[in-house]
From TrEMBL:
It comes from Haloechinothrix salitolerans. This is Type II CAAX endopeptidase family protein. It holds the Pfam family Rce1-like. The chain crosses the membrane at residues 20-41, 53-74, 94-118, 139-159, 202-222, 228-246. Residues 140-233 form the CAAX prenyl protease 2/Lysostaphin resistance protein A-like domain. The lineage of its organism: Bacteria, Bacillati, Actinomycetota, Actinomycetes, Pseudonocardiales. Keywords: Membrane, Transmembrane, Transmembrane helix.
């Protein structure tokens, strides 16, 4: 049984809520659509250069995360307070534990899902984009660092930072129910927002240990670390073929 810890610190209230999250999510989707159109207009999808793949992958999430941070500054108390971005070694350790659980769950889930829908349908959007495209060592390293380290930070800021804070701000009768509501909603929207209908159920399974790290610690660092641990093997799976070491 997972029990959410009580946060000893009292945090000041902020003035942003669901509207802030919806704005950031709309910005994320609009940026992704704009980049896709620009890349498609430049040359056919089959021959999109790796630099275009990197821009198309990194820019939308990065811009949305920066917008989320800006909102906490303009209408709140800053990201460290509003998004619970404190550094605590206990949170890192909790994140590592849930990340390890997530790796096991993800590995089993991917194996089962691939067996059900086939290898082509089970592949992620990023995996599909970079499949069979030559990548320079620099491009491969950038993609690896984004998937493993930077991407999880950006996504956690948006979903288990901004969205989580918006849900907790509502009156749920108790702080405990507010946290569980934030966990359920952020897990669901995180999976759906990837816009990969065939993989939504798999993404839900993957997101649960990450969300539990946020729930248990009461802060964002635990889920960031859990997300990064969970993304390590997928990042390696993209890096090694790009370097010509092996094919997955």
């Amino acid at each position: 049984m997972v029990t959410a810890v009580s946060d000893e610190r009292t945090y000041p209230s902020h003035r942003w809520g669901f509207g802030a999250f919806l704005l950031v999510e709309a910005l994320l989707l609009a940026t992704a659509a704009l980049v896709s159109v620009l890349l498609a207009a430049d040359e056919p999808r089959e021959s999109i250069p790796v630099r275009g793949v990197l821009i198309g992958t990194i820019a939308p999430t990065g811009i949305a995360a920066l917008a989320a941070l800006l909102i906490t500054v303009v209408r709140g108390n800053g990201p460290m307070t509003d998004l619970r971005l404190e550094w605590r070694w206990d949170d890192v350790k909790t994140g590592l534990r849930f990340g390890a659980i997530g790796l096991v769950v993800t590995t089993v889930g991917v194996a089962v899902w691939t067996n059900l829908v086939g290898e082509e349908n089970a592949q992620s959007a990023i995996g599909t984009l970079v499949a069979d495209k030559p990548m320079s060592v620099r491009a491969a390293l950038v993609m690896f660092c984004y998937i493993w380290l930077v991407g999880p930070i950006c996504e956690e800021i948006i979903y288990r930072g901004l969205l989580w804070g918006a849900v907790e701000r509502l009156h749920w009768g108790s702080e405990r129910w507010g946290r569980w509501a934030a966990f359920v909603l952020s897990t669901g929207l995180f999976a759906v927002s990837h816009l990969e209908p065939l993989r939504t159920s798999l993404l839900l399974v993957i997101a649960i240990p990450i969300g539990l790290a946020r729930l248990v610690t009461g802060r964002l660092l635990g889920s960031v670390v859990a997300h990064q641990v969970n993304n390590f093997l997928p990042a390696v799976a993209i890096l090694l073929p790009a370097l010509g070491v092996m094919q997955f």
